Amino acid sequence: MSPWPIPFHAFLHDMHNELLIARALTWRYVIALTLVATLATAAWISLHLVISAQKSTAAVVNVSGRQRMLSQRTALFSSLLVNAPPEGRPALRRQLREAADLMQHSHLGLIHGDPELGLPSTLSDTVHAMYFDRQKGVDRLVGEYLKAVYALLQADDKSLSPDNPLLQYIIAVSPTLLVSSLDKMVLQYQIEGEQAINRMQTAETTVWLITLLLLALEARFIFHPFTQRMRLTIASLQNVTDSLFESRERLRIVTENANDWLWETDTSGVVTAFSSRAEHLVSGGEMVGRNMVDVLGAGQESGQAGEMFGAIAAGQSYRDLVFPIRCAMGRTVWVRASAVPYRAKNGDFLGYLGVWTDITRSKQLEDEVRSYQGGLEKLVELRTLDLERKTKELAESEEKFRLISSSANEAIIIIDPAGRISYWNPAARSVFGYEASEALGRDMHELLAPRRYGEDIRRGFAQFGASGHGPLIGQTVEVAALRKSGEEFPVELSLSKLLLNGQWQALGIVRDISERRQAEEQIRQLAYYDTLTDLPNRRLLLDRLGHALAQAKRHRFSLAVLFLDLDNFKRINDELGHDVGDELLRGVAKRLTVCVRGGDTVSRQGGDEFVIVLARIEHALDASQVAEKILLALKEPLAIHGHLLEVTLSIGIALYRGDGAEGIQELMKQADMAMYSAKQAGRNCYRLFEG
What is the residue-averaged pLDDT of the chain? Predict the structure, then answer.
């Protein structure tokens, strides 16, 4: 039976295999990180495309909605021009031309694109068909309408009368056919914008699912094999340590009980150690401190002693050389000598280890002693090599784990069965704000988890420490965590388990997903709210109006739609600038919001138009009271950038009385027509739609 628990060649083979496996796992990890980084980049690009598409859609919808307002404005100025006295007509002609020019510019931008307005240069097939392919396409309808407006501008004062055919055409087309066509264009733009966002959201979801799949594959094919190999490596190192102890014990027993003399020299050949027993002819006391040349004496330069000196001069080992030595009181003892040079880890020569066998009385045992001597030499060599390899492998294993964990972008934390943090990588410091010295040894539940989770986490960890199973082990979840500052933030947590020193420990990988949550909220805000006033946009308004109308029909109660348009807003915009105009719209939005109930909806449609939905009213007087409240709220001037601006509104009201068949578009159209009546009635007032 071999005295070694693990044959040396088998040990070398196992260590080589461990190195190959560690390299393979490292490459897997690098590839996995590369794939995750690629998917994260794809997610960012997808998010960028969603935001760009939303901005483009918002610009198209705003400009298209402004066309509707401009059609009404040109119709209003045309009517005022005909009915105004001669001295007031030049100003009205100028205002009518400005509105018509803006309408013409916006129309060309919608068809051919306009970078300044944020309008794309391409049209979808549906939008192109609505503009050009039909006999009454929007392009032809707008062109004919503007042609009539420009013709009316060219007419002299004598031909301007209420029965002018051009005026009759403008008044007939603007609130009906033209407004209806422009509404359809706005709706189509909104539908296409929603479809583009849905496609982007589908792509984002796909990227997210693939990322989750890759994380699961990482846990299955990288971290799980890695922990398995770590356990096997530790077990192998334990076996090597046990073997090393056994070998050392064997060497001690052999040294203390050997019939031979074991010795050691320094680099100059002086004996530094010498083992002997009481019955030996040569004692350690007489040998330690003497040079080997003195021990052998003169006349030994030839023969096998000469071979020994030659080997020493060359720094080589020698074996089974027979020669006499001089002992105390002139005694001569024949020995069979073997020795090997031993070196430091860096290769520096330290001296010789050797053995002398007394063959004076028992040369017949020469063969047996030689075999034993060779085995002892082998034992010493193996002990040295095993110790060096074990140290090297352990250092390499620790270095690999350190490199992998310190280069990871996610926080990697190891928690012992008592819930204390036993490992904390550099990324954990970036995520939570704690240095490793502040986190190690601390209770994870008190340091990182919000208080509301404390009891559940402690109960789960108690179960995990006892059985190695827990409610979150092997799962990836999104939870809240605490930074050092006390700030609560969302994280994605993946938990796996490790068995170290007979105890279950949890390995947690934590990712900060605050930016992802913020991006999702930004997308929702862009999709449903006006970017200037933060009021619901047309898309959210139609959704809420649809719900309110369905409830009104089901429960047979009334609701009201108020269409509001700022009077003379274009003049303020042109004279004081868009910054003042934008701030004015924000101020008006705030005042409108305080005039309605919490369950009502105030929405900006684009330009200077607002729509209010009163979700549930008892009778028409309620809507009239809200309109009066709004007009009263706007009597107080608004202070904007050093200007005191007096603003008035024209309000149109459409009612659903609980038993009608009106739909969303019909109510919006009725409110728009009522607002137009308020404009004609002198502005700064409201009108109920009377069908």
Answer: 80
